[in-house]
Protein backbone atom coordinates (compact mmCIF):
# COMPACT_ATOMS: atom_id res chain seq x y z
CA UNK A 1 0.00 0.00 0.00
CA UNK A 2 2.78 2.39 1.02
CA UNK A 3 4.69 1.52 -2.13
CA UNK A 4 1.63 2.05 -4.30
CA UNK A 5 1.02 5.45 -2.73
CA UNK A 6 4.65 6.37 -3.26
CA UNK A 7 4.51 5.31 -6.90
CA UNK A 8 1.30 7.26 -7.46
CA UNK A 9 2.82 10.28 -5.78
CA UNK A 10 5.91 10.08 -7.98
CA UNK A 11 3.78 9.74 -11.11
CA UNK A 12 1.82 12.85 -10.14
CA UNK A 13 5.02 14.82 -9.69
CA UNK A 14 6.28 13.57 -13.03
CA UNK A 15 3.03 14.41 -14.73
CA UNK A 16 2.99 17.93 -13.39
CA UNK A 17 6.65 18.50 -14.21
CA UNK A 18 5.95 17.45 -17.80
CA UNK A 19 3.00 19.78 -18.02
CA UNK A 20 5.22 22.74 -18.72
CA UNK A 21 6.52 21.85 -22.20
CA UNK A 22 6.38 25.21 -23.96
CA UNK A 23 3.60 25.16 -26.56
CA UNK A 24 3.84 26.97 -29.89
CA UNK A 25 1.37 29.85 -29.73
CA UNK A 26 -0.67 29.00 -32.85
CA UNK A 27 -1.92 25.72 -31.37
CA UNK A 28 -5.64 24.96 -31.05
CA UNK A 29 -6.83 23.42 -27.75
CA UNK A 30 -3.35 23.90 -26.34
CA UNK A 31 -4.39 22.72 -22.86
CA UNK A 32 -5.44 19.35 -24.30
CA UNK A 33 -2.20 19.04 -26.19
CA UNK A 34 -0.25 19.93 -23.06
CA UNK A 35 -2.07 17.19 -21.15
CA UNK A 36 -1.51 14.71 -23.97
CA UNK A 37 2.16 15.53 -24.12
CA UNK A 38 2.50 15.21 -20.35
CA UNK A 39 0.83 11.80 -20.46
CA UNK A 40 3.02 10.63 -23.33
CA UNK A 41 6.19 11.79 -21.58
CA UNK A 42 5.15 10.34 -18.22
CA UNK A 43 4.49 6.97 -19.88
CA UNK A 44 7.84 7.08 -21.65
CA UNK A 45 9.63 8.00 -18.46
CA UNK A 46 7.90 5.25 -16.47
CA UNK A 47 8.63 2.69 -19.20
CA UNK A 48 12.31 3.71 -19.24
CA UNK A 49 12.48 3.42 -15.43
CA UNK A 50 10.95 -0.05 -15.55
CA UNK A 51 13.43 -1.02 -18.24
CA UNK A 52 16.39 0.26 -16.21
CA UNK A 53 15.08 -1.52 -13.13
CA UNK A 54 14.73 -4.67 -15.28
CA UNK A 55 11.04 -4.98 -14.37
CA UNK A 56 9.96 -5.13 -17.98
CA UNK A 57 11.15 -3.83 -21.30
CA UNK A 58 10.16 -0.34 -22.42
CA UNK A 59 8.06 -1.58 -25.31
CA UNK A 60 6.23 -4.16 -23.15
CA UNK A 61 4.98 -1.42 -20.86
CA UNK A 62 3.88 0.88 -23.70
CA UNK A 63 2.18 -2.03 -25.55
CA UNK A 64 0.14 -2.73 -22.44
CA UNK A 65 -1.20 0.81 -22.53
CA UNK A 66 -1.97 0.59 -26.25
CA UNK A 67 -3.83 -2.69 -25.80
CA UNK A 68 -6.26 -1.10 -23.33
CA UNK A 69 -7.57 0.87 -26.28
CA UNK A 70 -8.35 -2.05 -28.65
CA UNK A 71 -11.93 -2.48 -29.83
CA UNK A 72 -14.06 -5.41 -30.98
CA UNK A 73 -15.18 -5.61 -34.63
CA UNK A 74 -18.64 -4.10 -34.21
CA UNK A 75 -20.90 -3.93 -37.25
CA UNK A 76 -23.47 -1.15 -37.43
CA UNK A 77 -26.46 -0.21 -39.57
CA UNK A 78 -24.29 0.68 -42.57
CA UNK A 79 -21.04 -1.29 -42.33
CA UNK A 80 -20.19 -4.92 -41.68
CA UNK A 81 -16.96 -5.11 -39.70
CA UNK A 82 -15.01 -8.35 -39.43
CA UNK A 83 -11.60 -9.47 -38.22
CA UNK A 84 -10.22 -11.90 -40.77
CA UNK A 85 -6.93 -12.77 -42.45
CA UNK A 86 -5.42 -12.09 -45.87
CA UNK A 87 -3.11 -15.03 -46.51
CA UNK A 88 -2.13 -15.31 -42.83
CA UNK A 89 -2.04 -11.60 -42.02
CA UNK A 90 -4.74 -10.33 -39.63
CA UNK A 91 -6.87 -7.55 -41.11
CA UNK A 92 -10.00 -5.70 -40.04
CA UNK A 93 -12.38 -5.41 -42.95
CA UNK A 94 -15.15 -2.79 -43.41
CA UNK A 95 -17.79 -3.63 -46.03
CA UNK A 96 -20.65 -1.22 -46.75
CA UNK A 97 -24.03 -2.96 -46.44
CA UNK A 98 -25.88 -0.91 -49.02
CA UNK A 99 -26.39 -2.58 -52.44
CA UNK A 100 -24.21 -0.96 -55.08
CA UNK A 101 -24.85 -0.87 -58.83
CA UNK A 102 -21.17 -0.39 -59.55
CA UNK A 103 -17.95 -1.69 -58.07
CA UNK A 104 -16.71 0.19 -55.04
CA UNK A 105 -13.59 2.14 -54.27
CA UNK A 106 -11.16 0.70 -51.70
CA UNK A 107 -8.68 2.02 -49.12
CA UNK A 108 -6.02 -0.13 -47.48
CA UNK A 109 -4.86 1.52 -44.26
CA UNK A 110 -1.58 1.03 -42.34
CA UNK A 111 -1.78 2.29 -38.76
CA UNK A 112 1.07 4.17 -37.08
CA UNK A 113 2.85 3.23 -33.84
CA UNK A 114 6.57 3.33 -34.52
CA UNK A 115 6.62 -0.23 -35.98
CA UNK A 116 6.32 -1.46 -32.37
CA UNK A 117 2.82 -0.56 -31.23
CA UNK A 118 -0.78 -0.26 -32.20
CA UNK A 119 -3.33 -2.00 -34.31
CA UNK A 120 -6.25 -1.38 -36.64
CA UNK A 121 -8.25 -2.39 -33.58
CA UNK A 122 -7.25 0.78 -31.76
CA UNK A 123 -10.23 3.02 -31.12
CA UNK A 124 -8.98 5.89 -33.29
CA UNK A 125 -8.08 3.76 -36.31
CA UNK A 126 -11.26 1.71 -36.05
CA UNK A 127 -13.15 5.01 -36.00
CA UNK A 128 -11.18 6.38 -38.97
CA UNK A 129 -11.59 3.25 -41.08
CA UNK A 130 -15.30 3.00 -40.36
CA UNK A 131 -15.70 6.69 -41.17
CA UNK A 132 -13.83 6.20 -44.45
CA UNK A 133 -16.00 3.22 -45.44
CA UNK A 134 -19.15 5.15 -44.62
CA UNK A 135 -18.27 8.51 -46.14
CA UNK A 136 -16.77 7.13 -49.37
CA UNK A 137 -19.04 4.09 -49.61
CA UNK A 138 -15.76 2.20 -49.93
CA UNK A 139 -14.31 -1.14 -48.88
CA UNK A 140 -11.67 -0.47 -46.21
CA UNK A 141 -8.97 -2.82 -44.94
CA UNK A 142 -6.89 -2.15 -41.80
CA UNK A 143 -3.73 -4.24 -41.89
CA UNK A 144 -2.33 -5.70 -38.65
CA UNK A 145 1.23 -6.32 -39.72
CA UNK A 146 3.63 -7.96 -37.24
CA UNK A 147 5.29 -5.62 -34.74
CA UNK A 148 8.82 -4.98 -33.48
CA UNK A 149 10.85 -5.89 -31.56
CA UNK A 150 9.51 -9.43 -31.67
CA UNK A 151 9.66 -9.10 -35.44
CA UNK A 152 12.22 -6.94 -37.17
CA UNK A 153 12.41 -5.55 -40.69
CA UNK A 154 11.40 -6.87 -43.21
CA UNK A 155 8.47 -8.59 -41.39
CA UNK A 156 6.30 -5.44 -41.23
CA UNK A 157 6.99 -4.55 -44.86
CA UNK A 158 6.46 -8.12 -46.05
CA UNK A 159 3.13 -8.41 -44.25
CA UNK A 160 2.00 -5.13 -45.77
CA UNK A 161 3.04 -6.20 -49.25
CA UNK A 162 1.51 -9.67 -48.92
CA UNK A 163 -1.83 -8.25 -47.72
CA UNK A 164 -1.95 -5.74 -50.59
CA UNK A 165 -0.98 -8.32 -53.22
CA UNK A 166 -3.68 -10.65 -51.93
CA UNK A 167 -6.30 -7.91 -52.05
CA UNK A 168 -5.28 -7.02 -55.63
CA UNK A 169 -6.02 -10.56 -56.89
CA UNK A 170 -8.87 -10.65 -59.39
CA UNK A 171 -10.90 -13.11 -57.37
CA UNK A 172 -10.62 -11.10 -54.15
CA UNK A 173 -11.53 -7.80 -55.81
CA UNK A 174 -14.56 -9.54 -57.33
CA UNK A 175 -15.50 -11.11 -54.01
CA UNK A 176 -15.66 -7.71 -52.30
CA UNK A 177 -17.02 -5.85 -55.34
CA UNK A 178 -13.98 -3.55 -55.63
CA UNK A 179 -13.13 -1.50 -58.73
CA UNK A 180 -9.48 -2.39 -59.54
CA UNK A 181 -8.84 1.11 -60.92
CA UNK A 182 -9.85 2.92 -57.71
CA UNK A 183 -7.63 1.59 -54.91
CA UNK A 184 -5.72 3.76 -52.45
CA UNK A 185 -2.96 2.88 -49.97
CA UNK A 186 -2.95 5.09 -46.87
CA UNK A 187 -1.01 5.24 -43.65
CA UNK A 188 0.15 7.54 -40.87
CA UNK A 189 3.59 7.82 -39.27
CA UNK A 190 5.29 4.39 -39.45
CA UNK A 191 2.16 3.21 -41.30
CA UNK A 192 2.93 5.98 -43.82
CA UNK A 193 6.37 4.44 -44.18
CA UNK A 194 4.82 1.05 -44.97
CA UNK A 195 2.28 2.54 -47.40
CA UNK A 196 5.15 4.32 -49.21
CA UNK A 197 7.40 1.27 -49.38
CA UNK A 198 4.60 -1.07 -50.48
CA UNK A 199 3.43 1.39 -53.15
CA UNK A 200 6.97 1.61 -54.54
CA UNK A 201 7.13 -2.15 -54.67
CA UNK A 202 3.72 -2.75 -56.24
CA UNK A 203 4.09 -0.07 -58.93
CA UNK A 204 7.52 -1.38 -59.97
CA UNK A 205 6.58 -5.06 -60.06
CA UNK A 206 5.66 -6.10 -63.59
CA UNK A 207 4.00 -9.24 -62.30
CA UNK A 208 1.31 -7.37 -60.37
CA UNK A 209 -1.50 -6.70 -62.81
CA UNK A 210 -3.68 -4.22 -60.92
CA UNK A 211 -1.90 -1.11 -59.68
CA UNK A 212 -2.57 1.45 -56.98
CA UNK A 213 -4.47 4.57 -58.05
CA UNK A 214 -3.07 6.77 -55.28
CA UNK A 215 -1.16 6.83 -52.03
CA UNK A 216 -1.94 8.95 -48.99
CA UNK A 217 0.92 9.58 -46.55
CA UNK A 218 -0.02 11.26 -43.29
CA UNK A 219 2.97 12.68 -41.36
CA UNK A 220 5.03 9.68 -42.56
CA UNK A 221 8.49 8.62 -41.34
CA UNK A 222 10.54 7.89 -44.46
CA UNK A 223 14.19 7.87 -43.54
CA UNK A 224 16.71 7.70 -40.71
CA UNK A 225 19.82 8.11 -42.83
CA UNK A 226 20.20 11.62 -41.45
CA UNK A 227 19.03 11.93 -37.85
CA UNK A 228 19.79 15.64 -37.60
CA UNK A 229 17.36 17.38 -39.93
CA UNK A 230 15.97 20.84 -39.10
CA UNK A 231 12.72 19.25 -37.89
CA UNK A 232 14.75 16.96 -35.60
CA UNK A 233 16.53 19.96 -34.14
CA UNK A 234 13.33 21.97 -33.67
CA UNK A 235 11.41 19.07 -32.13
CA UNK A 236 14.14 17.31 -30.21
CA UNK A 237 11.87 17.43 -27.14
CA UNK A 238 8.82 17.74 -29.35
CA UNK A 239 5.17 17.30 -28.50
CA UNK A 240 4.21 13.59 -28.18
CA UNK A 241 7.21 12.41 -30.23
CA UNK A 242 10.72 13.28 -29.03
CA UNK A 243 13.93 12.57 -30.90
CA UNK A 244 14.99 9.95 -28.33
CA UNK A 245 11.71 8.06 -28.58
CA UNK A 246 11.70 8.18 -32.39
CA UNK A 247 15.26 6.84 -32.46
CA UNK A 248 14.45 4.12 -29.94
CA UNK A 249 11.43 2.93 -31.92
CA UNK A 250 13.01 3.02 -35.36
CA UNK A 251 16.04 1.18 -33.96
CA UNK A 252 13.80 -1.59 -32.70
CA UNK A 253 12.50 -1.98 -36.25
CA UNK A 254 15.98 -3.28 -37.09
CA UNK A 255 17.50 -4.68 -33.92
CA UNK A 256 17.35 -4.80 -30.13
CA UNK A 257 21.02 -3.92 -29.92
CA UNK A 258 21.54 -0.67 -28.00
CA UNK A 259 24.52 0.24 -30.18
CA UNK A 260 22.16 1.33 -32.96
CA UNK A 261 20.22 4.01 -31.05
CA UNK A 262 23.50 5.15 -29.51
CA UNK A 263 25.02 5.69 -32.95
CA UNK A 264 21.80 7.18 -34.34
CA UNK A 265 21.67 9.84 -31.66
CA UNK A 266 25.11 10.91 -32.85
CA UNK A 267 24.15 10.59 -36.53
CA UNK A 268 26.96 8.06 -37.06
CA UNK A 269 25.01 4.91 -37.76
CA UNK A 270 25.24 4.65 -41.53
CA UNK A 271 27.68 2.05 -42.89
CA UNK A 272 30.95 3.07 -44.53
CA UNK A 273 29.94 2.38 -48.11
CA UNK A 274 26.66 4.32 -47.96
CA UNK A 275 27.67 7.89 -48.80
CA UNK A 276 26.09 7.65 -52.26
CA UNK A 277 22.69 7.56 -50.50
CA UNK A 278 23.08 10.97 -48.85
CA UNK A 279 21.93 12.81 -51.94
CA UNK A 280 18.46 11.28 -51.51
CA UNK A 281 18.11 12.85 -48.06
CA UNK A 282 20.23 15.99 -48.46
CA UNK A 283 17.89 18.47 -46.79
CA UNK A 284 20.00 21.46 -47.79
CA UNK A 285 18.83 20.76 -51.36
CA UNK A 286 15.49 19.00 -50.88
CA UNK A 287 13.82 21.19 -48.24
CA UNK A 288 12.10 24.41 -49.26
CA UNK A 289 13.94 27.46 -47.94
CA UNK A 290 11.18 28.24 -45.46
CA UNK A 291 12.08 25.11 -43.48
CA UNK A 292 15.82 25.18 -44.03
CA UNK A 293 16.06 28.54 -42.29
CA UNK A 294 19.64 29.27 -41.22
CA UNK A 295 20.48 25.73 -40.21
CA UNK A 296 23.88 24.54 -41.34
CA UNK A 297 24.07 21.23 -43.20
CA UNK A 298 26.50 18.72 -41.74
CA UNK A 299 26.96 15.36 -43.38
CA UNK A 300 26.24 12.27 -41.25
CA UNK A 301 29.43 10.53 -40.10
CA UNK A 302 29.93 7.04 -41.50
CA UNK A 303 30.82 3.84 -39.74
CA UNK A 304 29.90 4.58 -36.11
CA UNK A 305 28.26 1.18 -35.91
CA UNK A 306 30.79 -1.63 -35.82
CA UNK A 307 28.70 -4.14 -37.77
CA UNK A 308 26.49 -3.91 -40.81
CA UNK A 309 22.69 -3.82 -40.75
CA UNK A 310 21.48 -4.25 -44.33
CA UNK A 311 18.09 -2.66 -43.51
CA UNK A 312 19.70 0.75 -43.04
CA UNK A 313 20.43 1.07 -46.75
CA UNK A 314 17.27 -0.65 -47.97
CA UNK A 315 14.55 1.48 -49.55
CA UNK A 316 11.93 -1.05 -48.46
CA UNK A 317 12.71 0.04 -44.90
CA UNK A 318 13.50 3.69 -45.60
CA UNK A 319 11.65 4.55 -48.80
CA UNK A 320 13.21 8.00 -49.20
CA UNK A 321 16.33 6.06 -50.26
CA UNK A 322 14.67 4.83 -53.47
CA UNK A 323 16.42 6.18 -56.58
CA UNK A 324 14.70 8.36 -59.16
CA UNK A 325 13.88 5.50 -61.52
CA UNK A 326 12.04 3.71 -58.71
CA UNK A 327 10.01 6.87 -58.04
CA UNK A 328 9.02 7.61 -61.64
CA UNK A 329 6.16 5.14 -61.84
CA UNK A 330 4.47 6.23 -58.66
CA UNK A 331 0.79 7.20 -58.69
CA UNK A 332 -0.91 10.41 -57.59
CA UNK A 333 0.33 11.14 -54.06
CA UNK A 334 -1.20 13.06 -51.17
CA UNK A 335 1.26 14.01 -48.43
CA UNK A 336 0.24 15.68 -45.20
CA UNK A 337 2.92 17.22 -43.00
CA UNK A 338 2.66 18.90 -39.60
CA UNK A 339 4.74 21.90 -38.59
CA UNK A 340 5.43 20.79 -35.00
CA UNK A 341 6.55 17.29 -35.90
CA UNK A 342 9.95 15.64 -35.75
CA UNK A 343 9.10 13.74 -38.96
CA UNK A 344 8.00 16.87 -40.83
CA UNK A 345 11.07 17.05 -43.08
CA UNK A 346 10.79 13.42 -44.21
CA UNK A 347 7.43 14.21 -45.80
CA UNK A 348 8.65 17.55 -47.18
CA UNK A 349 11.69 15.94 -48.82
CA UNK A 350 9.54 13.22 -50.39
CA UNK A 351 7.29 15.92 -51.88
CA UNK A 352 10.36 17.45 -53.56
CA UNK A 353 11.78 14.15 -54.73
CA UNK A 354 8.50 13.01 -56.28
CA UNK A 355 7.90 16.36 -57.99
CA UNK A 356 11.47 16.30 -59.35
CA UNK A 357 10.69 13.13 -61.28
CA UNK A 358 7.27 14.34 -62.45
CA UNK A 359 4.96 12.48 -60.03
CA UNK A 360 1.79 14.42 -59.27
CA UNK A 361 1.78 15.41 -55.59
CA UNK A 362 -0.82 17.19 -53.50
CA UNK A 363 0.82 18.58 -50.39
CA UNK A 364 -1.11 19.69 -47.31
CA UNK A 365 0.87 21.38 -44.55
CA UNK A 366 -0.85 21.83 -41.19
CA UNK A 367 0.68 24.91 -39.58
CA UNK A 368 -0.58 24.05 -36.10
CA UNK A 369 -0.21 20.28 -36.59
CA UNK A 370 1.47 17.88 -34.18
CA UNK A 371 2.63 14.31 -34.74
CA UNK A 372 0.06 11.54 -34.28
CA UNK A 373 -2.97 13.86 -34.09
CA UNK A 374 -5.30 11.28 -35.68
CA UNK A 375 -4.66 8.90 -32.78
CA UNK A 376 -6.17 11.41 -30.36
CA UNK A 377 -9.40 12.29 -32.16
CA UNK A 378 -11.48 9.76 -30.20
CA UNK A 379 -12.18 9.31 -26.49
CA UNK A 380 -10.84 10.57 -24.12
CA UNK A 381 -9.24 13.50 -25.97
CA UNK A 382 -11.54 14.25 -28.90
CA UNK A 383 -8.75 16.39 -30.31
CA UNK A 384 -10.17 18.81 -32.87
CA UNK A 385 -6.89 18.87 -34.80
CA UNK A 386 -7.26 15.11 -35.40
CA UNK A 387 -10.80 15.53 -36.69
CA UNK A 388 -9.67 18.40 -38.91
CA UNK A 389 -6.92 16.21 -40.43
CA UNK A 390 -9.43 13.41 -40.96
CA UNK A 391 -11.89 15.72 -42.72
CA UNK A 392 -9.24 17.36 -44.90
CA UNK A 393 -7.89 14.02 -46.05
CA UNK A 394 -11.22 12.25 -46.50
CA UNK A 395 -12.79 15.05 -48.52
CA UNK A 396 -9.76 15.06 -50.81
CA UNK A 397 -10.01 11.29 -51.14
CA UNK A 398 -13.71 11.49 -51.95
CA UNK A 399 -13.03 13.87 -54.84
CA UNK A 400 -10.02 12.04 -56.22
CA UNK A 401 -10.32 8.31 -55.64
C1 LIG B 1 24.43 18.33 -49.83
O1 LIG B 1 24.11 19.56 -50.44
C2 LIG B 1 25.09 20.58 -50.34
C3 LIG B 1 24.56 21.80 -51.06
O2 LIG B 1 23.58 22.44 -50.31
C4 LIG B 1 26.37 20.11 -50.96
O3 LIG B 1 27.36 21.10 -50.77
C5 LIG B 1 26.81 18.80 -50.34
O4 LIG B 1 27.93 18.31 -51.04
C6 LIG B 1 25.71 17.78 -50.43
N1 LIG B 1 26.14 16.59 -49.74
C7 LIG B 1 25.86 15.35 -50.16
C8 LIG B 1 26.50 14.27 -49.40
O5 LIG B 1 25.14 15.13 -51.12
C1 LIG C 1 17.57 2.02 -58.89
O1 LIG C 1 17.38 0.99 -57.92
C2 LIG C 1 17.01 -0.24 -58.48
C3 LIG C 1 16.66 -1.18 -57.33
O2 LIG C 1 17.65 -1.17 -56.35
C4 LIG C 1 18.13 -0.77 -59.35
O3 LIG C 1 17.77 -2.00 -59.92
C5 LIG C 1 18.40 0.25 -60.44
O4 LIG C 1 19.52 -0.17 -61.20
C6 LIG C 1 18.67 1.62 -59.86
N1 LIG C 1 18.71 2.59 -60.95
C7 LIG C 1 19.61 3.55 -61.03
C8 LIG C 1 19.49 4.49 -62.17
O5 LIG C 1 20.50 3.67 -60.20
From TrEMBL:
Entry's Gene Ontology cellular component terms: membrane
Name of the protein in question: Arylacetamide deacetylase like 2
Q: Which UniProt keywords apply?
A: Disulfide bond, Hydrolase, Signal
| Source organism | Gorilla gorilla gorilla (Western lowland gorilla)
- Give the residues annotated as active site: 189, 341, 371
Keyword Cytoplasm on entry: no
Instruction: Give residue ranges for domain Alpha/beta hydrolase fold-3.
Output: 107-258, 311-373
Pfam families, per the entry: Abhydrolase_3 (PF07859)
* Protein's UniProt keywords contain Glycosyltransferase: no
Gene3D superfamilies of this UniProt entry? alpha/beta hydrolase (3.40.50.1820)
For this protein, the record's InterPro entries field holds: AB_hydrolase_3 (IPR013094), AB_hydrolase_fold (IPR029058), Arylacetamide_deacetylase (IPR017157), GDXG_lipolytic_enzyme (IPR050300), Lipase_GDXG_put_SER_AS (IPR033140)
Which PROSITE patterns is this protein grouped with? LIPASE_GDXG_SER
Family the UniProt entry places it in:
Belongs to the 'GDXG' lipolytic enzyme family.
The entry lists its GO molecular-function terms as: carboxylic ester hydrolase activity
The organism's superkingdom is given as: Eukaryota
Q: Where is the signal peptide?
A: 1-18
Amino acid sequence: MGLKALCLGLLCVLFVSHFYTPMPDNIEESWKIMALDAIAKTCTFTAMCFENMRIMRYEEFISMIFRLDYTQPLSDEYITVTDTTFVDIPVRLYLPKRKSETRRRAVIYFHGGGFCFGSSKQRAFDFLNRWTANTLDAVVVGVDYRLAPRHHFPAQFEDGLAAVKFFLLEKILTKYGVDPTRICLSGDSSGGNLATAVTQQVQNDAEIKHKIKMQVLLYPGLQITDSYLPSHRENEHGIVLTRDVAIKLVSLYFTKDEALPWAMRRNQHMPLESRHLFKFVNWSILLPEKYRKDYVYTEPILGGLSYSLPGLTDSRALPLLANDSQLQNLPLTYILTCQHDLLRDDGLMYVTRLRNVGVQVVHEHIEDGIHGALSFMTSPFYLRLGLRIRDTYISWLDKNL
